[in-house]
Design brief:
Radius of gyration: 20 Å
Shape: globular
Number of strands: 10
Helix content: 25-40%
Distance between the termini: 40 Å
Strand content: 5-15%
Structural class: alpha/beta
Number of domains: 1
Low-confidence stretches: 331-337
CATH superfamily: NADP-dependent oxidoreductase domain
Number of helices: 10
Order of helices and strands: EEEHEHEHEHEHEHEHHEHH
Largest sheet: 8 strands, parallel
């Protein structure tokens, strides 16, 4: 396993992290979940990512039970706050009150006295950003969390949070957790560069597009047995709309590249995400230990400029500027205004 520093912080995390959305506490038995987590730690993965809203706390309980048998100080525990934790309107958002209550509840479910990385799961338009920033700063001062970050915030929202913290000398966010994969490159438009400039590391989620980029979904077998799409619980959120003729053509072309490199399509997709310097870690989901082992090997793959260029041609989905429609990223040299 290889490691990178998370933004400008001193926190060193593995290039592959293990997540828990739609799996632990929901679609995967605890015994299997523990096997996946054991495998991750054995391979050098040191980040376990979750959120309070995952199955309304049940996922955190599974991870908390697991952590009771491990050396807590060797695991970087990341969780999130924002989503509704009950049907009552006051149990959601990023108000100081809810952040405080949610953090205490997560600490209890996780059987720990501190959270390494506490993340704002989404942006709260109903709460002053200054209030949210101060609430996070206070939790750090009290030792309940060590670092804080955001997830799926816009570039402007991230910049505003950083500037507010600088103005008041509060602890700034050190990370952003956005969606990023070969099929969804919106991160590259402006958020990625802002995070790099402001010192926020990126822990990207869904780097395999919920399994679409594993190569298991084919035109001949669009819903393979024992896949996420076939699962009664996990399959409810599966992006079936992406299973198009264009997608199958792209996957076949990516398989050819993976074959030449002697790797799996999933490993190629993860290495593709990690090619960008601001990306600190890819968060994988796993319902079987062998999936963790396979994905962890992605850190061993190096992509040459020629291979990346070939992949760009296959994907044909360069992000575009919202005002000029100009391509952003591949082959583009930024020259300022």
């Amino acid at each position: 396993m290889k490691y990178r520093k998370l933004g400008k912080s001193g926190l060193i995390i593995s290039e592959i992290s293990i997540g828990s959305w739609l799996t632990y506490g929901l679609g995967v038995d605890n015994a299997v979940a523990f096997q996946c987590l054991d495998t991750a730690i054995e391979l050098g993965i040191n980040v376990i990512d979750t959120a309070d809203v995952y199955n309304r706390g049940e996922t955190e309980k599974v991870i908390g039970t697991y952590l009771k048998t491990k050396n807590r100080h060797e695991v970087i525990l990341a969780t999130k706050v924002f989503g509704p934790m009950s049907d009552h309107f006051m149990t959601q958002g990023l108000s100081a009150r809810h952040i405080r209550n949610a953090c205490e509840a997560s600490l209890t479910r996780l059987h720990t006295d501190y959270i390494d990385l506490y993340q704002c799961h989404r942006y709260d338009i109903d709460t002053p950003l200054e209030e949210t920033c101060y609430a996070m700063h206070r939790l750090i001062e009290e030792g309940k969390i060590l670092y804080w970050g955001v997830s799926q915030w816009t570039a402007v929202q991230i910049l505003n949070a950083v500037r507010i913290c600088e103005k008041h000398n509060w602890t700034k966010p050190i990370s952003n957790q956005p969606i990023y994969n070969m099929l969804n490159r919106s991160l590259e438009v402006d958020v990625m560069s802002v995070c790099e400039e402001e010192g926020l590391g990126l822990l990207v989620y869904s780097p395999l597009a919920q399994g679409l980029l594993t190569g298991k979904y084919t035109k001949e077998n669009p819903v393979p047995e024992n896949s996420r799409a076939a699962d009664e619980k996990m399959g409810k959120m599966f992006p079936t709309k992406r299973l198009t003729d264009k997608f199958y053509t792209q996957i076949n072309a990516l398989k050819s590249i993976a074959d030449e490199l002697g790797c799996k399509v999933s490993q190629l997709a993860l290495a593709w995400c990690l090619r960008k310097a601001p990306v600190t870690s890819c968060i994988i989901g796993a319902s079987r230990p062998e999936q963790v082992t396979e994905n962890a090997k992605a850190t061993e793959i190096s992509l040459t400029p020629e291979i990346i260029h070939h992949i760009e041609i296959i994907l044909d989905n360069h992000p575009k500027d919202q005002y000029t429609d100009a391509l952003i990223g591949h082959g583009i040299i930024k020259r300022g205004y």
